[in-house]
Every structure is written in structure tokens, then in C-alpha cells.
Design goal:
Low-confidence stretches: 1-71, 289-293, 561-577
Mean pLDDT: 83
Number of domains: 2
Distance between the termini: 24 Å
Shape: globular
CATH topology of the largest domain: Maltoporin, Chain A
Helix content: under 10%
CATH architecture of the largest domain: Beta Barrel
Structural class: mainly beta
Number of helices: 9
Length: 737
């Protein structure tokens, strides 16, 4: 994006933070050429023109402050810097001001503001985020990036938000693509893409200290220092957090995190960015009441340890205002240790019957000695290496192009999750291109294609074509068609999770991989509208859409079959459930609906954000089969309950006198069923409030905030045993230049 810095000589200095933008000078003011065709900038230029415009009476004179605001340029749709009016797909931008006003304590909390997004609380520390439902705790159908680096887990898929190695305070903006975007970021940018852009260290020079405490014994401590020298800017951030989790759960957690970013200016045309981070956490976990009574035999109380780390380096060279090269290499690593033992069989039987079953009676009842089963996975490691070259250029006055190629290597290993304890590896190569063509002054066309080749798979192609028609200076209509894929995760293809006796022999196979599953495919048609009202700082985004999903990957349960007996469903013995859940291409779905997003700044002190989404689904997927590959499934489930019909959010924020800020956030979510380990939960209303007082002392900026969450009500989230109640927190921060 662009940031404008005011200087005493009334000039405007443009600092390039990510991608070069062509500029023009009009009446002594530097203006990005990319904006000359956008509605708002057209009005700005008219107001600056020596020749009076008929619109002057409507909009009035524009102050210098109008130019000092962040410009609505986005990068995530095509990898080309574009105004919202030219992007080929619906987008939501959450800027730093919105994050500050909201009082969120996690990134998923911020994403509640995005039309059509749902956030689930799996445990006190573990959150899941999805677009249009149909998701379990891993939400595998969305791509998430930080500064262009994918954080999609190579093993399970999705994102581990519980130990996410980036701090909310270091985020400059979040760009959310609401729709398929594999054409830009490859497989797994399936239903949506979240691109998190961190703040340049040059804008954070100084030291920040922050402390927060409150409900559920939550404590959070943060320190950040950023510094600028002649050719080098860097930021070092560290955070420690702990909490008792949900009210009625044994799900305490603690997390430690450190993150570094450095930007080195090699010369006038070349820059080098380096980022690295590490996080480590310990969290209590269990799943309750999924199968029998008030406990789950395969998910007892236990402690899980997880660690994440990453390293990223990017070299960029600007040959001219119209041409830039970049070369990026990054490495992600995640390790989860969830190795544990279940109750004794005698304890299971005693809890199930409500009486006391002595150990000596177990062999007669079950046929096995009284013992504990070994479960979970010891040191599940997942790793990714990714190398990518990119070039953006202008081919002609009306044509711009970005193209590139990349290679990736994903791997995962687990002592208990994969057959024969083997390391599972998948390699990928890709090539992509996105072009923007101003066919006329009113019509903008976007063309794009991503080609990907995976080991043991045929090549896959993800195309998109979009037409943006500027009705006038303030309104744009968009029509687009795109296709995308979601590759099966390494776990979905190769899983062999067992419940084992003490002698390591198999008691049961709990999850069984599907071999070489087909990728999920989506074809999407979208009709969109973007409107601007500059006098209110208002942008309205609306879309109608229809998504067709094929080869959805589900988890049917295996019943009587010719496979080894432990892989098939057997008669349950007390609370002991047997039979594998089998990853397979289980169904097709069609999702359609409409969405509305409004952001407005009626004054420089007031912020309003509103979102609403309606969605409905048809189609069904397989719930149970006799054996792998059986053409006659024995149970189906409709997709419709997996998607909430109505999702809504509203944020009102205002800056009062004497350094007092306040905000009110309201969320409404219809009831629906979470997939996988989740359950059907009722709809709920959620209200959050934040009040802050800011003041300068001896050159330092201090802020004291009170945050009240879930005011006045309890609600159920992800499972019917996950009760979320009112919470309150006090936060203090101080910033030294």
C-alpha cells in the first residue's frame, strides 16, 4: 500500500512500502497514476484543476488532509496494485484504525467484521475461521498469507491461530478476498484469501510496552522496539500470553512468541526484506460429549505442546516506475506433540454404567485385559520450503501484467499418524500470470491463469476473467468467473491414526487416509457493485454469487467391510467406539447468496463498519460407507445445515474530547452445524464494548483501555459444551519515541 507523509514544505513524500506505483504531478501534487481512473481520485483531480467543475458545488474544496489519508490500493486480488474499483473479485479491507477501535485480542476476532465470515471457538485457545461455513477446526478451504508468505499448514491444512507467529499490534492492514483466488495464490485459495500486511518498521520507530489482564485469569504482556538507521529499518516484538480458557472447560493455555522484521535498502533501486518468528505454547485440551454420555473415550484431558517458526527473505529490484522484480524464499515449520493415554477400560465401563467395574471383570466383558490405550500423535512435524520469482510491468498505456513462477516442497512426519512412521513429502511447481487491460475509459478487464503441477497428480489450471464497468465516477459494476482447487492435505491422503494397546498392537484405526484423493474444485460466478460517497468517506461493496463445489473431501465412517477388522465399525462396547473415519471425496454442493459491506468515516472522529451476508446451500455428502471405494454409500447428509443463513456485524467507533475513544461492536450469527469434531450450535448475538483514555506524559504516549466482551449473555460455540460468557479486560500501553 501507499503511505503519505506530510513535510513542512507542503510537499507530499510517497514511501513505497510494497509495490511501485506510477505517479503524475498535477498542480504541484504527486498523484498515483493508478488512481486517475478511479471515482474518488477523479473528483480530487477535478477539484484541483484550474478549470472549475460542475461538481465543485457538490463536493466543495478538498483540504490537504484528503491527500494524507491512506489510499484504497490493494494487492491481494491480482498481485497488481489496484484501486477497489478495478479488482476482479469482492474484497474487504480492515485497516489499522479499525483494528485499534475494535479492541480485539486475536486476529480471528477482527475477521468477524468480514461479510460471510464465521469464527468458532474450539477451545479457550484454539480458534477456527471460515467463509460460508462447511468447516471443521482446521478450515482448510482458505489461504492465509503474511507479507506474501503462506501460513497454510502443510500437514493438517488450515491455520493454527493458537500459536500464530505474528502480533496483532504489528499489522498494518488485512486484505480479504471473498471468493476463489487460486489464480493469484494457487491451490487452497479456495473459498477466500486473507492477506495480512505488517507495518513497515519505519512507521513504528520507538518502544511499545503493553499489558492486559482480566477474566479467566487472562494475562498478556508485549514489548516492541523499532528503529531506523540510514539504510536499515527493523522491528523486534515479543509477547507472552496465558489464560484459563473457557468457563466450563479444563483448557488452560500459555503462549510465548517473538517476531523480527528487517528492511535493508541496498541502493536506490534494490531492497532486501527479512522476517523470522518463533512461537511455543502449551494448552490443555479434550473433546466432550461427542459419542457417549458426558465424555469422549478418545479425547481425555491432556496437555498439547506446539511450536511454530518461520524465516522469510525477499529481494526486490525496481527497474523503473513500470517494472519491478522480486525473488522470495521462505520456510515454515510446525511441531505438535499430542501423545497421551486413555482411561483404563475399567474406568470407562464404570463411568458408562454408573457403577463400579473391577479390573478383574474387564476380560470377561471386553475380551482384553484392563489397560490404557495409547492415542494421539507424538511430534507431528510439518514443514514447507517455498521459492518464488515475480515480475510486474506495464506493457502499454492500457496494459499491465504480473507474471511469475515458483516451487514448493511440503513434508510431514508423525510416529503415530502415518503408516510405517514414514515422512510424507509433496512437491509442487507453478507458473502464473495476471493481466489488466483498460479496454476503454469505462471498461477494465482482468485475465489470469495459475498452472500447478503436483507430484503424482496431473497439472491443474485455475483461470479467472472479470469485467469492471465504471458506470460513472462513483459507481462500478463487476462480473467475474473463476475456478480454483483445494489440494488434499498430507493427512487426508496418508493418515493412519491408531488407538494402540500397550504392546503397540492396533486396537482401532481412528482416521484412515484416502490415498490419492481428487482435489476439491470450485467454479464461481460473481456480480458485484462498488459505490463511493466521498463526502462521508463511505464505500459500499455488494455482491451476488453462485459457487459450485465438486469432490468435497469429507470423513465418512467405515462400516462392515473386507478390510482388516480394526478399520471397520464394530459393535461398540460400552463407551468404546470402533471404526475408522475415512477421508474421501464425499459430495458436491452449490452455495449461493448475497453480501453487503459498508465502511464509512462521516467525520475524522467517527468510524462505521457494517456487514451482512445471506447464504444457502444445496447438495449432499456421504456420511457412511461399507468399505473404501464402495459405489453404494449407506448414509448421506445435506450440506444446508453446515452453512449459517445469516451473518451480520456492526462496528461504531468515535473519538470524543479529552483523549477518550469508544466503540461498540455487535455480531449476529444464525445457528448451524460445525463439521468434523464440531456440533450443531444455536444462533447467538454478541456485543463488545471498548473505552480508552489517551494522554501524553513527558514525551511518552499512554493509553488505558477497558474492554467488555459478550455483554449480558452466554452463547454456545462450535460444540454444545463450549459456553462463552461475559468477559472484561483492562489494558495499559505506553509508547516512547
Amino acid at each position: 500500500m501507499l503511505k503519505f507523509f506530510h513535510r513542512s514544505d507542503n510537499a507530499i513524500l510517497i514511501r513505497r512500502l510494497y509495490t511501485p506505483i506510477s505517479i503524475a504531478v498535477i498542480n504541484g501534487v504527486i498523484i498515483p497514476v493508478n488512481y486517475l481512473r478511479t471515482s474518488l481520485l477523479t473528483l480530487l483531480l477535478l477539484s484541483l484543476s484550474p478549470v472549475a467543475s460542475a461538481q465543485d458545488d457538490l463536493w466543495g474544496a478538498l483540504s490537504e488532509e484528503d491527500f494524507l489519508a491512506d489510499m484504497p490500493v490493494v494487492l491481494s486480488a491480482t498481485r497488481l496494485a489496484q484501486p477497489l474499483t478495478d479488482v476482479p473479485v469482492a474484497m474487504t479491507i480492515i485497516d489499522r484504525d479499525t483494528i485499534d477501535a475494535l479492541g480485539a485480542t486475536t486476529i480471528p476476532d477482527v475477521l468477524r467484521l468480514v461479510p460471510g465470515f464465521q469464527v468458532g471457538r474450539v477451545t479457550g485457545s484454539k480458534l477456527t475461521v471460515t467463509y460460508h461455513g462447511i468447516s471443521d477446526e482446521y478450515a482448510r478451504n482458505m489461504q492465509v498469507l503474511i507479507d506474501g508468505r503462506s501460513v497454510y499448514d502443510a500437514g493438517f491444512g488450515g491455520v493454527n491461530w493458537a500459536s500464530f507467529p505474528v502480533l496483532l499490534e504489528d499489522i498494518q492492514r488485512i486484505e480479504v478476498i471473498r471468493g476463489p483466488n487460486s489464480v493469484t495464490f494457487g491451490a487452497n485459495a479456495f473459498s477466500a484469501t486473507i492477506n495480512i500486511i505488517t507495518t513497515h518498521p519505519a512507521e513504528q520507530s520507538g518502544t511499545l510496552l503493553k499489558m492486559m489482564g482480566g477474566s479467566l485469569s487472562k494475562r498478556r504482556y508485549l514489548v516492541r522496539h523499532a528503529m531506523t538507521t540510514q539504510n536499515f529499518e527493523f522491528r523486534l516484538s515479543a509477547m507472552q500470553e496465558q489464560s484459563d480458557g473457557l468457563e466450563n472447560h479444563q483448557d488452560d493455555f500459555s503462549t510465548q512468541m517473538v517476531n523480527f522484521r528487517g528492511d535493508y535498502h541496498l541502493n536506490a533501486t534494490s531492497d532486501l526484506l527479512f522476517e523470522a518468528g518463533f512461537s511455543a505454547g502449551e494448552r490443555d485440551d479434550k473433546f466432550e460429549a461427542l459419542f457417549s454420555g458426558d465424555f469422549n473415550p478418545y479425547q481425555p484431558d491432556r496437555t498439547i505442546n506446539d511450536r511454530q517458526s518461520f524465516q522469510q527473505i525477499r529481494f526486490s529490484r525496481t527497474e523503473s516506475a513500470e517494472s519491478e522484480w522480486s525473488l522470495q524464499l521462505y520456510h515454515n515449520y510446525q511441531e505438535i506433540d499430542d501423545d497421551y493415554e486413555t482411561m483404563l477400560f475399567s474406568e470407562y465401563l464404570s463411568r458408562m454404567t454408573g457403577g463400579t467395574v473391577p479390573p478383574a471383570a474387564v476380560p470377561a466383558i471386553l475380551g482384553w485385559s484392563d489397560q490404557r490405550l495409547k492415542m494421539g500423535y507424538h511430534d507431528l512435524n510439518s514443514e514447507r520450503y517455498d521459492l518464488e520469482l515475480q515480475h510486474s510491468l506495464r506493457l502499454a498505456d492500457e496494459w499491465r501484467l504480473v507474471w511469475g513462477a515458483g516451487a514448493r516442497r511440503d513434508s510431514a512426519w508423525s510416529l503415530a499418524r502415518f503408516e510405517d512412521d514414514r515422512k510424507v513429502i509433496r512437491s509442487q511447481v507453478r507458473a502464473f500470470g495476471n493481466a489488466e487491460w483498460y479496454a476503454t475509459e469505462q471498461l477494465v478487464l482482468n485475465f489470469g491463469l495459475m498452472a500447478e503441477s503436483y507430484e503424482d497428480y496431473q497439472p491443474y489450471y485455475s483461470p479467472r476473467i472479470a469485467f469492471n464497468f465504471h458506470v460513472d465516477n462513483l459507481q462500478t459494476l463487476r462480473l467475474s468467473y473463476s475456478k480454483a482447487i483445494r489440494m488434499p492435505t498430507l493427512v487426508e491422503n496418508n493418515s493412519m491414526l491408531r488407538a494402540r494397546f500397550q504392546d503397540e498392537s492396533t486396537f482401532d484405526v481412528v482416521y484412515l487416509g484416502g490415498g490419492r484423493l481428487k482435489p476439491e474444485e470450485i467454479a464461481s460466478v460473481e456480480l458485484g457493485y462498488v459505490g463511493n460517497v466521498p463526502t462521508l468517506g463511505l464505500t459500499l461493496d455488494a455482491k451476488l454469487y453462485r459457487d459450485e463445489i465438486r469432490d468435497f473431501i469429507g470423513q465418512p465412517r467405515l462400516h462392515d467391510c473386507s478390510e482388516p477388522v480394526e478399520m471397520c465399525a464394530q459393535p461398540d462396547v460400552g463407551p468404546i467406539l470402533r471404526g475408522a473415519w475415512y477421508y474421501s471425496n464425499a459430495g458436491d454442493a452449490t452455495i449461493s447468496g448475497y453480501e453487503l459491506g459498508i465502511s464509512a468515516n462521516p467525520s475524522d472522529k467517527t468510524l462505521v463498519r457494517f456487514s451482512y451476508a445471506f447464504a444457502k446451500a444445496s447438495g449432499r455428502f456421504i456420511r457412511a460407507i461399507n468399505e473404501p471405494g464402495d459405489p453404494n454409500p449407506i448414509g448421506y447428509t445435506d450440506f444446508s445445515p453446515l452453512i449459517p443463513r445469516n451473518t451480520m456485524s456492526l462496528l461504531l467507533a468515535h473519538r470524543f474530547l479529552h483523549g477518550i475513544d469508544g466503540s461498540l461492536a455487535y455480531y449476529r450469527l444464525d445457528g448451524f452445524e460445525w463439521f468434523g469434531d464440531g456440533e450443531e450450535v444455536p444462533g447467538y448475538d454478541k456485543v463488545d464494548v471498548k473505552l480508552s483514555y489517551s494522554r501524553e506524559y513527558f514525551g511518552a504516549e499512554g493509553k488505558l483501555s477497558l474492554m467488555l466482551k459478550n455483554i449480558g449473555a452466554h452463547y454456545t460455540d462450535f460444540r454444545d459444551t463450549n459456553e462463552v460468557g461475559p468477559e472484561s479486560y483492562i489494558e495499559f500501553e505506553v509508547f516512547f519515541d
